[in-house]
Each structure stands twice: as structure tokens, then as C-alpha cells.
């Protein structure tokens, strides 16, 4: 398996030094991972270089969330597929680089839509919406992104996989043991 390339030329570094905000910080480099293994490799490279990874999708954030001195990891180029739409159960499984409007075009034939309606819906990606908990002008009716996520898989800072969903107490006890539910002296309130 090839190591993902980290582009360090001035064109890429300058292009990725801003998002839709007023912030600017030139990154170390830019990478376009093709899969989870590439992300794990980039985590290891970042650790070796003492650099953070900066996940980026559409770059539509307005508070500088996707700018920094680390390695910008743009998932919108390759990790942008709609993997499954289950119209009966009313959910979709997507990669983080899927553009919100493209998801809704695919869901339209089933009478479904992903409701958080950002003003940048024609270019923002689901991964960025998830990271920012995006909403929109009808959030009082439809809620924000977190209200529409059933579960998520991700790669953690140590390279391991994380699976995030609602767990029962029994599932947590099976996974972690009873130690999380036992009260200790350090749990007391002051």
C-alpha cells in the first residue's frame, strides 16, 4: 500500500490556509486520503513530525475550524460516496466527503431529505456538518446535525477505530466492565 502524499507546494499550502472565515494560517501540507488506512498512516506521520491533523471537507466553516499549522486532510476528493440509502428505515450511510445537496438529490426519490439546511448546502460536506453540528434557518423545526446521526465510525488519534452510537448500560458494562459505574471518592461533589 502506498503512503498518502503530503503536498507541500505553495499553491496547495496557500489554498488551504483559509476557510470561509477571516482566519489564515499556512499548513505544513495537504493530503487527500483515499480510505481509512490512509488516515491511519497520516496520523502516524503527524505523530512522527509532531503535527496535528486538520480534517477538512468543504472548507465552508466560518470560525477557522479547518485552518492550522498541521497537515490538512481533505476527505472531499476521494471519500465522497453515498454507500447506502435504506428508505424503509429512513437512513443513509455515507462517507464524510458527501456534499449535503448531493445526498438530498439521491434521497429525493424516496421522499426523504437530510434536513439540516446550511446556507452552503451546495458545497458543505456531511463530515464537516457532523464536526460543527450544523443546523440552519429551520433548526427549531428540524434540529441540528446531531439530531439526525444514528451512529458514526471514525479513526481516533491513536489510529484505532471508534464506533459511536447510543449504547445501553449493559453494552457499556460488557465493553468496559463495571468500573465506570462504581462510585469512587473522587466522584464526590465539593
Write the layout of secondary structure elements.
Blueprint: E1 6-7, H1 10-15, E2 29-31, H2 36-49, E3 53-56, E4 71-74, E5 82-86, E6 91-94, H3 100-108, H4 126-132, H5 139-142, E7 151-155, E8 161-165, H6 169-176
Parallel strand pairs: 2-4, 3-4
Antiparallel strand pairs: 1-2, 5-6, 7-8
Can you walk through the features of this model?
- The strands form 3 sheets. The chain has a 4-stranded mixed sheet, covered by helices on one side. Strands 5-6 form a two-stranded antiparallel sheet.
- The N and C termini lie far apart (54 Å).
- It is 25% helix and 17% strand.
- It is α/β, with parallel strands linked by helices.
- The protein has 6 helices and 8 strands; from the N terminus they run βαβαββββαααββα.
- It folds into 3 domains: 69 residues, Uridine Diphospho-n-acetylenolpyruvylglucosamine Reductase, domain 2; 68 residues, Uridine Diphospho-n-acetylenolpyruvylglucosamine Reductase, domain 3, CATH 3.30.465.10; 31 residues, no CATH class.
- The model has no long low-confidence stretch (mean pLDDT 91).
- Strand 7 and strand 8 form a beta hairpin.
- The longest helix is centred in the first third of the chain and has 14 residues.
Number of domains: 3
Strand order of the largest sheet: 1-2-4-3
- The assembly state of the depicted protein chains is single chain
Describe the largest sheet.
4 strands, mixed
And the CATH topology of the largest domain? Uridine Diphospho-n-acetylenolpyruvylglucosamine Reductase, domain 2
The rough form would be described as globular
Order of helices and strands: EHEHEEEEHHHEEH
- How many helical elements? 6
Could you tell me the number of beta strands?
Answer: 8
Helix/strand structural class: alpha/beta
Amino acid at each position: 500500500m502506498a503512503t498518502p502524499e503530503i503536498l507541500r507546494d505553495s499553491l496547495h499550502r496557500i489554498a488551504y490556509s483559509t476557510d470561509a472565515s477571516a482566519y489564515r494560517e499556512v499548513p505544513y501540507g495537504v493530503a487527500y486520503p483515499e480510505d481509512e488506512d490512509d488516515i491511519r498512516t497520516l496520523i502516524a506521520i503527524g505523530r512522527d513530525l509532531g503535527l496535528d491533523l486538520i480534517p477538512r471537507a468543504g472548507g465552508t466553516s466560518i470560525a477557522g475550524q479547518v485552518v492550522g499549522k498541521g497537515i490538512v486532510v481533505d476527505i472531499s476528493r476521494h471519500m465522497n460516496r453515498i454507500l447506502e440509502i435504506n428508505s424503509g428505515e429512513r437512513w443513509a450511510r455515507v462517507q464524510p466527503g458527501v456534499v449535503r445537496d448531493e445526498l438530498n438529490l439521491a434521497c429525493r426519490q424516496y421522499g426523504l431529505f437530510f434536513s439540516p439546511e446550511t446556507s452552503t448546502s451546495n458545497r458543505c460536506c456531511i463530515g464537516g456538518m457532523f464536526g460543527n453540528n450544523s443546523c440552519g434557518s429551520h433548526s427549531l423545526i428540524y434540529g441540528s446535525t446531531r439530531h439526525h446521526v444514528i451512529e458514526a465510525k471514525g479513526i481516533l488519534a491513536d489510529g484505532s477505530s471508534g464506533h459511536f452510537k447510543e449504547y445501553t448500560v449493559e453494552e457499556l458494562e460488557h465493553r468496559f466492565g463495571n468500573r465506570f459505574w462504581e462510585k469512587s471518592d473522587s466522584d464526590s461533589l465539593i
